[in-house]
Amino acid sequence: MALLLVALTVRLHALERVPPGLTHDEAGHAHDAEAILNGARPLYQTVGYGREPLYDYLVAGAMALLGPTPWTMRLCSVACGLFTLLLTFAWARRAFDAPVALAALAFQAASFWSLATSRQALRSTLLPALFTAAVYVFWRILYGRPGWRRWLLAALFALFIGGTLYTYLPARAVWLLFPAFLGYLLLVDRAALRRAWRPLLAGLAAGLLLAAPLFAYLRAHSDAEQRLGMLDEPLQALAAGDASAVGRTVWEGLGALFLPGRGDDFLAYAIPGRPFLDPLTGALFLAGIVLCLVRWRRPGYAFASMWLLIGIAPSLLTGARAMTTRSIVALPAVYVLPALAVVTCARWAAARWGRRAAWMVGVGATALVLVAGGLAARDYFVTWGQSADVRAAYRHALVEAAAYLDAADAGGVVALSSHTPHAPHDPYVFQVSLRRADLSTRWFDASRALVLPAVESARLIAPASAPLDPLFDLPGLAVHERVPLRAGDLDPSFVVYAWDVQASRAALAARIQPAPGVGALGGALRLLGYDLRVAGGAVELLTLWEVLDPAPVRPADLSNAEQDLVLFAHAVDAAGAIVGQEDRLDAPAWDWEAGDWVAQVHRFTLASELTEGPLTVWVGAYRRTDWVRLPVVVEGGVVGDHIVLQAVEVP
């Protein structure tokens, strides 16, 4: 209880400040949890390349009680982390004994891995809690009292197995630990297997059956799950006869556990290169593996080694990157192994030199845990938590901008510049962080685009990392306040502009050349005009569009940025060949309102060798999903799929 209390205290410390904001994944969870509060009942979430929804339901329940805040989300993860610690102790006490259980709890509680994942608002934090609960119940069925209670435990086992499959992708493989262990028992302990195989297999089958609706949904919506296609490159190479890729990822995954400089390099959730185990704990971990191999006929040792192998299998196939989350189900098993080594060493010392020697081993292990825990806390709260790169990854400037607006009196329209203005990215972070509901927002990356809403005045916020392009230095934009954050950050400040939108519109209208007499793109956009400049083979094009009706171009699924629109600008020679182009849209259509003006800047270089004769510049739009261009419509009829601007003479 003392260890759990210390672990809880450390995990709650500065929970609202470290991590210093929200990642896009965390914001996606918050967005989906609020949707559940408002009546959504998803079997699968499409945001973030697709994900299982159980964690979002857990967060939604917590938000109903404590409010929809990032702190509430993180509190759910703290509870999951504490539950994992408690269940690790409970299982290790049954599989081994109380000293091993206590040591395993201590090593895990003091680790950077456990501390960091217990404070991440991610679905991965729920998986080890549910899976370790399944392991504990499995062990109770297998080695507990006989009778009808086994069938009640089998029902609980089914719930935990089914729950893991609704939690995180690795759960689709780790359930194989249980039938694999039953196969092991067929060799070494048939008596235990005969006593419990029926409720165990029934519970496992029922758990898989509980997940049938999820897999039926994925079968019917094969495009919803994008993550698998992003992770199977080594397996594809192996199928093609190249084993080197798998060999490399296996070495990376194993080395990440204890080799300095080889740890998880995913900055958002780990200190890049920091191994999961310090040198001494790593040595004990290796000793624990040796013990498991030597004592393989003892069920607890065999189960721990199988749990470790199956748990880290995702990282053995994909490498060390993101191992913090992908192999999180192995977290309890990893720290059971050094605990086995310490207790075995203490008992060997007691048998050889007496109880005082065992006591000294215990003191040394306690000192190791205290030092490792202190270093983990320092690394997490200071080295990692105060890092400028981490603050950028957690969108700290955007969270501070939301706090700034919460404290302001005025509502109305707020235009926000961001590197990632698409719906499932920075806008979700902002929405989760903002506590007021009287603001209308427009999103864009001001270094290439600007949305001018159809209002008299607004506020525009631009961080240092996404400042206004020089072409948008317009009348009507006046610096109201420069808000300092922290020197040395990627975003050391953000600028708040007081914006006379109509003055800026008038200035842009005066600057551009009127568009040729054409209709609308897809009934959604009308080209107002453009400003085209060519110098030394470099093309700079500013196009200004009016939003007539955003509905035809608004993505059907706002969480999928791949469904958004793209504006293209092509330089075409006399033969019709494209000799220069740039396709982009830095003011995504998900946020447009009728009457908005959208200004987009394209910059590209012409091909070094050009045919004689003038070039023409074409513009138009297409959707990322199918590459189909929007039709140019004039008086209800389609006249083409692009707009020709003007001929350009290239010196």
Give the helices and strands, then pairings:
Layout: H1 2-12, H2 24-37, H3 54-66, H4 70-95, H5 98-109, H6 112-117, H7 126-143, H8 149-165, H9 171-174, H10 177-188, H11 190-210, H12 212-220, H13 227-231, H14 233-239, H15 244-258, H16 279-294, H17 299-318, H18 323-326, H19 331-353, H20 355-384, H21 388-393, H22 396-407, E1 412-417, H23 426-433, E2 439-444, E3 449-452, E4 457-463, E5 477-484, E6 493-500, H24 501-511, E7 513-514, E8 520-521, E9 525-535, E10 538-547, E11 565-572, E12 578-584, E13 597-605, E14 615-623, E15 632-634, E16 637-640, E17 643-648
Structure description:
With 651 residues, the chain is an alpha+beta fold. The protein has three domains: 2-6 and 24-220 and 237-386, no CATH class; 391-508, no CATH class; 512-648, Immunoglobulin-like (Sandwich). 49% of the residues lie in helices and 17% in strands. It has 24 helices and 17 strands. Strands 3, 7, 8, 9, 10, 13, 15 and 16 form an eight-stranded antiparallel beta sheet that branches. Helix 16 crosses helix 19 (331-353), helix 17 (299-318) crosses helix 19 and helix 22 crosses helix 23. The chain is elongated.
